[in-house]
Queue: 2 jobs
Job 1
Amino acid sequence: MKDIKHLVVSAIKDGTVIDHIPAKDLFKVIAILGLDKIENQVTFGSNLDSKKLGKKAIIKISGLFFRNEDINKIALVAPEAKLNIIKDYNVVEKKVVEVPDNITGIAKCVNPKCITNNEEIVTKFSVVDKKKVILKCFYCEKITSQENMRII
Amino acid sequence: MKNRSLVSISDYSKEEYRKILDLAEEFEKNPRQDLLKGHVVATLFFEPSTRTRLSFESAVSRLGGSVIGFADSSSSSATKGETLRDTIKMVCNYADLIVMRHPLEGSARFASEVSSVPVVNAGDGANQHPSQTLLDMYSIRKTQGTLENLNIFMVGDLKYGRTVHSLLIAMSEFNTTFYFISPDELKMPDEYKRFLKHKGLKYYEFKDFTDIINQADIIYMTRVQKERFSDPIEYERTKNAYILRNHMLKDSRSNVKILHPLPRVNEIHLDVDDNEKAYYFTQALNGVFVRQAIISSILGFK
């Protein structure tokens, strides 16, 4: 029964599977992780049925393993995401993403009068509420809430 | 504090506030010293501000230092399209400290990252103006003899007022009880009330400017601006409700002082000026001593 699920997106030999991504956020996750710019083989499926999320997406990246601080960036858009680390076709480790304390370079500040929206500056936020994903801009000190959040 | 920029009021701890205020007191007794001789402070005002700029420039000059800079961005190469980053990197070569006012929020924080010399924020958009907060605290301490356990009244535009937000944050360290008097449109935002609740501090909100002010140790007045109202009729109805007049002070406490970050328009009537409780002009003078204290500690002379 498990195998039927995996047939929708083929199994990989070694690498990382990111599961339980809300389908609408698939491409945001790809952008955040820079998967559109790497050389590794990447397969993904979208609008797959999910009991938890309704419609989910899965990404499988061959031969790539992420550091926690890199993968946790996707917690901004996909806080329920689950990672399976694959070695030799077997799941050797399962991880969940955690919203980090600080976020650099991913989200845009909601304040049009923030210096980061007027000059070439990498954005920096501290996460003031991990559950509701509320960000405080390091520069202008204004709050960007999840509904106002735009990914760069 | 040495070599550290001052961008936000929260950059300094309670102990550091105290150090600055003590130092300002020393400078008030002795404002002309040659501490900064041979040193150059750049005042970069991308947005004009006569009072703050002159206050900083006076502070530096009276300590024997030199001032360079511009009072308006139209006098700088920002008009040629030069980025803030490049401007700051260039000015570092010419000065030992940068004092900056800029219309965009976060500009001072960014400048402090890019600069090889410390940056003092003289106002970044609607965000921070820490030297104002420190001079407000100095004025409070000087007139009340303490910062602890006071009743501080904030009147007027509490929604957009950068100075009241900043003063609230700083004074929350001293067991202050806050009283907010404002029109419904301009109430103190929830995030600040939550902040006070979190700290276990009491606050009271009023729509009307009444006898309640007889409870005040400090009355901090701010201007109610027309452009902040979505309904101009509402503005017309409310604009006179928050004007302080001399007769309103007849039963006030003997120690109460009226503060205002200035410029005032009509929110403090001229008839208050001769009342000994009117402190707003002395408050502006205190700005020089406080700024001397800030600059000297950052440059390591005190």
Job 2
Amino acid sequence: MAKIAITLEINGESHEALVEPDRTLLDVLRSELGLTGTKTNCLDAECGVCTVLVDGLAVNSCLYLAVVAQGRAVTTIEGLAPAGEGLAPTGTMHPLQQAFMDHGAVQCGYCIPGMILSAKAYLDEQPRPSEAQIREALAGNLCRCTGYQKIVDAVLAASGRMAAGTVAS
Amino acid sequence: MSRFEYHQPESLQDAVALAARFGAEASFLAGGTDLLVQIERGRIAPRHVVGLHRVPGLTGIEVNGRITLGARVTHRSIERAPALAGALRCLVEGAEVIGGHQVRNVATVGGNLVNGSPAADLVPCLLVLDGAVALLGPAGERELPVERFLLGPNRTDRRADELLTRVSLPALPPRAATAFLKAGRRRAMEISVACVAARLTLDASLERCLEARIALGAVAPTAVRAHEAERLLEGQPVGPQAFERAAEAARAACRPIDDVRASAAFRQHLVGVLVRRALARCVERARLAA
């Protein structure tokens, strides 16, 4: 059962990898490409820490084969800030990342990449959501620190800023 | 070492030929949200996985009299299809309560059917809409009603060399409406403790039931129609008394189990409540649309 050569487009860059076909996108992102911002936990589509965007839609990368991601645009948390790589200086964060910092919406932090990507996918579709809609959009992302209120506050604040066009999304 | 070999056919013919070649050693991959979990847990161990992503013609929602859902139509597409927002609304209500957005963005109607879970939320909706599945195999295509397709927990009538390509629903008559209701232990990310889909067609006076369909999920080895409850409604004036009789018959039609999510007795109780509410909702919707 041979490995397959695949080309993945991740955060606008092309990556080549030689992978076993049963490996998940999550595994390839973390183990082959060193993109460890995408977290690993339940491997069961319950917790959402592995959320990435595929062609703009949030998916659980733990249940998504890397071979299936070929030819699609993958966005991970590393690709969200305009600065692109490393720790971007304050002020160049994506509005969602900035809002999470402003609202202290991060406790242990493990769920946050997934939270932010789920929120981004939803805001791209619904720029002016209600609080209830935000909660529904984040239902597939668990925060074990139970910091939901501040997370929802941050997404609400980011949606206001993004929709007002005061910052680039 | 990979647990399976991966195939990416680009036509239905090639997909079916691969299934014919590998038989029970092959699994089709659509959204993967059930298949990959089962492989990960060691419940199944296919030597060949046949990805359907490059096979054209499986992602359409067509509404022209009949309604056709391609096997790879996602729950997300059902939620957002304008054509399903009216009388077919139970499909939207069944699709939008499955998993989180991440699952609904990839999980498909074909996968939901083929997986054969007794708790699959879309399946009762397809039952009340008189859905029929199309299965394409080496000998050609056959169609059979969803009710006959479902055989037991994780068991369907699909043969290993057959691909479920679509589910078709006949056009609804005028003054028909549908509803789907689900009870879980919490409001999101929950497997149904019990769920109910209903469809009522009213007569011209909007007071009498011409035709009824009721289907129950998570309370029997497969999703099931409550035929006796339907029969008790047809020809009768709609209202609380008729709904209570139907609810009683639906409670009698289910064969629930005790498990970690709920007791059998509670499931049976829920079925009665959900049937009454779903029927009332159908009447409201049919009258509103008329």
